[in-house]
Design goal:
InterPro entries: UDG_Type-4/5, Ura-DNA_glyco_family4, Uracil-DNA_glycosylase-like, Uracil-DNA_glycosylase-like_sf. By secondary structure, this protein is of the alpha/beta class. The chain is 46% helix and 14% strand. It has a six-stranded mixed beta sheet, with helices on both faces. The chain binds uracil. The site of uracil has 12 residues, from helix 4.
Length: 184
């Protein structure tokens, strides 16, 4: 297991897959590296690629706003990152070999943060972390305990932006995450 600085250096120099050749910035992660909650998304979009920070575009702003309304603050309460650290062109879903190449970095981040709660944002992160048999509309909001981590999934905030009907469920899931957070 690498320490933060060495891990960052590995990621910033990574060319294990072609996404590394096309990035403006590698998007490592943000928030409290000792946060009790870790949110995991899919991959950076255009705003993230430009700034080097995760979840800063429209979807990220929605997520940040909802979490703040629940008094969950990025600098204090959670760490946030993605399965893939580099942007896929045109925001396509990452290929499996790209996820596989990047997963050791995420595992190392999880080992360093040691969160109590892991939240997968959207189907891609959920299928990668919780299993291929999970279905986002059916299984969102469910909790499993694995290796001492409490894990769940909710909609990706960009799915909520596309479909207003998902908002109440998204809100309900995040409220439940806040409740779980209160247990630690
Ligand atoms: N979508 C993601 O999955 N991650 C980001 O960082 C931004 C948008």
């Amino acid at each position: 297991m690498l320490k933060w600085k060495e891990l960052y250096e590995e990621c910033v120099n990574c060319h294990k897959c072609a996404l590394g050749d096309n990035r403006t910035n590698m998007v490592f992660g943000d928030g409290n590296p000792k946060g009790k909650i870790m949110f995991i998304g899919e991959a950076p979009g255009a705003d993230e690629d430009r700034t080097g920070l995760p979840f800063v575009g429209r979807a990220g702003k929605l997520l940040t706003r909802v979490l703040e309304s629940l008094e969950l603050h990025r600098e204090k309460d959670y760490y946030i990152c993605n399965i893939c650290k580099c942007r896929p062109e045109n925001n396509r879903t990452p290929h499996e070999h790209e996820e596989e190449a990047c997963l050791p970095y995420l595992r190392n981040q999880v080992a360093l943060v040691r969160p109590k709660i892991i939240v997968c944002l959207g189907a891609t992160a959920m299928n990668c972390i919780l299993g291929k048999d999970w279905r986002i509309t059916r299984d969102r909001g469910k909790w499993v305990e694995r290796k001492g981590f409490y894990m769940t999934a909710t909609f990706h905030p960009s799915a909520v932006l596309r479909d207003e009907n998902k908002k109440p469920m998204f809100w309900e899931d995040l409220k439940d995450i806040k409740k779980k957070y209160g247990e630690f």
